[in-house]
Amino acid sequence: MMINTISTTPFEGQKPGTSGLRKKVSVFQQSHYLENFVQSIFDSLEGFQGKTLVVGGDGRYYNKTATQIILKIAAANRFGRVLVGQNGLLSTPAASAVIRKHQAFGGIILSASHNPGGPDGDFGIKYNISNGGPAPEKVTEAIYEHSLKIMEYRITDTAAIDLAQLGETQVGDMTVEIIDPVADYDALMAQLFDFERIKALFQSGFTMRFDAMHAVTGPYAQTILEQQLGAPPGTVMNGVPLEDFGGGHPDPNLTYAHDLVDIMYGDNAPQFGAASDGDGDRNMILGQRFFVTPSDSLAVLAANAHLTPGYKDGLAGIARSMPTSEAADHVADALGIDCFETPTGWKFFGNLLDAGKATLCGEESFGTGSNHVREKDGLWAVLFWLNILAVRQQSVETIVREHWATYGRNFYSRHDYEGVDSKAAHELMENLYTTFSQLNGQPFGSHIVEYCDDFSYIDPVDHSISDNQGMRIGFQDGSRLVFRLSGTGTEGATLRVYLESFEKDTTQHHLDAQEALAELIKLADEIAGIKKSLGRDKPSVIT
Ligand code: G1P
Ligand code: ZN
Asked: What is the pLDDT of residue 14?
């Protein structure tokens, strides 16, 4: 084997965000581009020689090509061993599980999550550390710094590895092991949930549809739901991962998972429906003609966690992102445990999970997870629901309605104004800041302002401070309005308005969220002047 040192020149604009580096496929296809970034990752790390790296991705276009390149660079940089998911596949939560189980030094995940794939779509790469979670900011900053001044990278001249063949191959001194992408994850799920009981549920004729959206969870869902748990064949739909996700947008929400939504709202709807995104970390939960908001889902999982083997001893605490509804807080109160409110983004949960302060965590954006890995986990949430359904023998809707009757209901909705003028959106946020100083204690419609601030978070573990995490107004009756600009959009700016009201009285629970929130929706526009300053008369997406 020869190790070649290749001269290169740095590219502009390689700054990775919290979810890694995401660009169009054509950008990654530029010569040296991926190589530069991978070498920059390795140059930012110390002491990995002889250690284990995990590599896998969501199966989108360029996943296999990128995997081959990474293997050659890893060998040239003297990793000892690389565990690669068969055919280059590993869901994001499975990659996290594999890193933890095999005590790997770290892992490289190839994914652009729920963004469309294919030659004209997006590609992405991110580095996870040994706890299985995304690299902290100081590591991603270091990678970025390296990528700005990189002059050469090291790569072997070895032949491509057969990614389809399970087993070991040598690349120089480095061993490449192609692993079953599902096995370690499956074993972990079997520890957490009562597979026998779920099997009995399916044997009794329980019906379900899981929409893998032609993304990475197909093989996971087929193995676990259909083969292990005995769900009838066909339970998993769109189960074959495709490089372009079948032309779809693999994001599990009521808009993009329309195949599933049509079935769950149609005649003869199955009893349970669920979907996951491109890389398997998001989830959507549906009952028969019934949508469970991600905020409610987190609260229901927390309230019923004791029914599952993995969480039968109770929860240390719950964590939710600030814009996520306060439904989980009511459960935490009843359980006498802490509920942490973190800024948007999964990375803020890592410290709480590592320190044993929180067991479950979730975001309103279809992300739910626990301390079993350090990523959010779509299929895990689905299995958690199945375990609860198997024990309680009630419908999804009944479980949620009983939950509301016990804890009260947090009506919730998110209104997104996508692709708006960036300057106007920033001005709107600045004006809010000024308006806020005059709002305290003021009546607004039938609401009285209790607090309004620009959310700032002090990490309870490392005491780091994160400012400017969104403008929020809390009213005395438990209603909230939150305004923030998206950190993940690619065109212009996206304003997200999160609306929430709390209703203890169950007679209101027949209402649809938009009806229940009508007054707050009006107030949000009055306070922020959305329509006027953004020139939009309605949100582009309502969740
Ligand atoms: C969005 C979601 C956020 C999630 C992130 C990454 O970020 O709102 O909850 O953590 O995607 O999946 P945003 O575009 O709002 O910054
Ligand atoms: Zn994702």
From this structure: 61
